[in-house]
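A quick aside before the break. I want you to see a complete sequence-to-structure record at least once, exactly as it would be stored in a machine-readable document. Don't worry about memorizing anything.
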Amino acid sequence: MSTLTRDDIEQAARHVYQVMPATAQYAWPLLAERLGCTVWIKHENHTPTGAFKVRGGITFMHWLKRTHPEVKGIVSATRGNHGQSLALAASAAGLRALIVVPQGNSVEKNNAMRGFGGEVVEFGRDFDEAREEAARLAQAQGLYLVPPFHRELVKGVATYALELFTAVPDLDTVYVPIGCGSGICAVLAARDALGLDTRVVGVVSTEAAAAKLSFESGKLCETASANTFADGLAVRKPIPEAFDIYGAAASRMVAVDDDQIAEAMRVYYTDTHNLAEGAGAAALAALMQERDAMAGKKVGVILSGGNVDRSVYANIIA
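That is the input. The structure line, written in tokens, reads:
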């Protein structure tokens, strides 16, 4: 993936801001008190789809309409946030959106995808099997297969990092959750485009640690399962193009378990009254784990989304 310039990201922002405003970043005092450092939260739970992915969906559809005007519809696999993003952006562009999710996927995320105009198909036991079915349906139905990682997706997502770094250019470290990798690659791209030296730390689930294993061994590693309630992190094998970027440019990787993620979700509620889904709270969980090393520093944390089912959230808060 060729390097993104500040101009590239600002151009993407112009497209994004036709659909949504910039999201806020706040330094919450109770988090600072709790963790002994200044904590800037980037609120991607406040986008129209409740997650950061919508930015990439918007820029991707702009690119697709321009470069493939013959396309009548798209298909993609998701656990939810990418699918909501594509459903919203495709509907706005007048395209059909077919979204493949694994069986037993979040009911509320499925409903939201339909609400934004997507058709939802359940297939397979996890995200990776849903991806294979999406590829088959693309062939069978003549739809454009939207990958989980693409330069245009990263360019759109990088707009949140541009907002954060413009507001707070002197962050020591930023913690970013990793699913398929567009988030961390976007943060790295924006950091480099602005010429900053902020350290970027990737966060994975202990139950879906392929990105961390790959980062530490220097080669792609796959896990047998990805059984975490943080569905946005539940990926068994890294996307090679994403790994090429974060494998070379991230500072380190931190793994957090489901209990730590649940605790971070409770902390978000108590200290900021914000709703975070599992993947959305993972970055804060990582900072909580590394609080001693971050003492006195100025730290950024990506709250990537707030789309958690009511029943799941009720159990965690209780």
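Two observations worth writing down. Strands lie at 25-27, 38-43, 73-77, 96-101, 119-122, 144-145, 173-177, 199-205, 252-256, 298-303. DSSP finds 13 helices and ten strands in the chain. We'll return to this after the break.
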